[in-house]
Amino acid sequence: MDIKFTSDYILEKEFKKSMKGYNVEEVDQFLDLIREDYDTFSKKVAALEEENARLQQELNSTSKRPAPTPSTNSTNFDILKRLSNLEKHVFGSKLYE
Known about the structure:
The protein is mainly alpha-helical. The chain folds into two domains: 1-65, no CATH class; 70-97, no CATH class. Helices cover 69% and strands 4% of the residues. The protein contains three helices and two strands, in the order αββαα. It has a two-stranded antiparallel ribbon with strand order 1-2. The N and C termini lie far apart (80 Å). The relative contact order is 0.07. The mean pLDDT is 80.
C-alpha cells in the first residue's frame, strides 16, 4: 500500500517515441501503475477519515460524561488524618501536655 510516484515524477515522465508516436504499451503500463497508486491513496484517505470520525465521536462522548466527584467524607477524613499526623510530627509530646 505504498505510494509509488510523486507529482513531480509523473509530470516529468518521458515516454519513448516510436514511428506512430508514443509506445502504447509503455503508456498503458505507466497509467496502470498510476491508477494503482491513486487507488492506494484513496484507500488511505478513506481509512484516515473513518479513524478521524471515530476519534471525534469518542472525544465527544468522553467530554459529555460528568466528572466523578470525590467522596466528601473520605476527603475530609484524609485531610484530618494528615493534619493530625503533621501536628504530632511538629509538636511531638507538647501536643498532649
